[in-house]
């Protein structure tokens, strides 16, 4: 479902990122394949420096269909950025990728809080986040972070996922499966 980034997948991902349904919402708006390759190399270096964790989202047959990153990691917290290619919208990849990534972040990397900033007009992303039982709207819970992502005008909603909420939700899901 997810794997560490590698440069061989950049061409496939670059083709997906340029779709007009995807491009406005990606973090790095690369104008060329070479720029996308450079950004990917930078992310790999940032991961070595432990300021970013970046993964490729794969479909069932192992083809790259998007990326998921935790960036600006400080004090066991960071911001999530996810995009999936338009041909794969509405097929459950986003939620499955987030489940896998959160498991890795919380259990392997000891992250405690994941923030998600979502453009208020990005209804598709808002719905995807709101499907996660452990994600909370955090505009009022973390007013200083909310203000930092909206310095001039309120463009983004802030959501957060806490380690304890994620574990609690997954414990409940495991209990339902067991019974």
Automatic annotation (TrEMBL):
It comes from the Bacteria. Coiled coil: none annotated. Residues 7-132 form the N-acetyltransferase domain. InterPro entries: Acyl_CoA_acyltransferase, GNAT_dom, N-acetyltransferase. Transmembrane segments: none annotated. PANTHER family: GNAT FAMILY, PUTATIVE (AFU_ORTHOLOGUE AFUA_3G00765)-RELATED-RELATED (PTHR43792), N-ACETYLTRANSFERASE DOMAIN-CONTAINING PROTEIN (PTHR43792:SF1). This is GNAT family protein. It comes from Paenibacillus chondroitinus.
